[in-house]
Design a protein that fits this description.
single chain, globular, 6 helices, 79% helix, mainly alpha, 122 residues
Length: 122
């Protein structure tokens, strides 16, 4: 039962990660990491596929091998979220203003709280 739940959540978060590629308001990185976490516990074959994709593979490899995400990825993601939220807030109705701002700030906080990759010592 637990394995099926992990699988369902993993597939859901793959979908959200793909949506994040299309919609700049949704940060892809946290969704890919949650999908990886769930799939490694439920479907190693699907996890391996996800880790080989061009859009999710580097994120997953950095997380597993170096313990974080690249600063350039964080900066780019945070900038896209900030721009998207800014545009959305500008056009939002008075009723939606606080919802848009709140969701955007949560997205930004999640992205900024991800740890940076550790530097390799030589």
């Amino acid at each position: 039962m637990q394995q099926k739940l992990y699988f369902a959540v993993g597939v859901l978060f793959i979908g959200l990660g793909i949506a994040g590629l299309i919609l700049p308001v949704i940060p892809t990185t946290p969704f890919v990491l949650v999908a990886s976490f769930c799939l490694i516990r439920s479907s190693p074959k699907l996890h391996d596929w996800l880790a080989q994709t061009r859009w999710a593979g580097p994120i997953i490899r950095d997380w597993h091998e170096r313990g974080g995400v690249r600063p350039s990825l964080k900066i780019g993601t945070a900038a896209m979220v900030a721009i998207s939220v800014g545009v959305s807030v500008w056009y939002a109705s008075a009723a939606a203003f606080w919802w848009v701002l709140g969701i955007g700030l949560v997205n930004l906080l999640v992205v900024l709280c991800l740890p940076n990759v550790r530097r390799e010592t030589t």
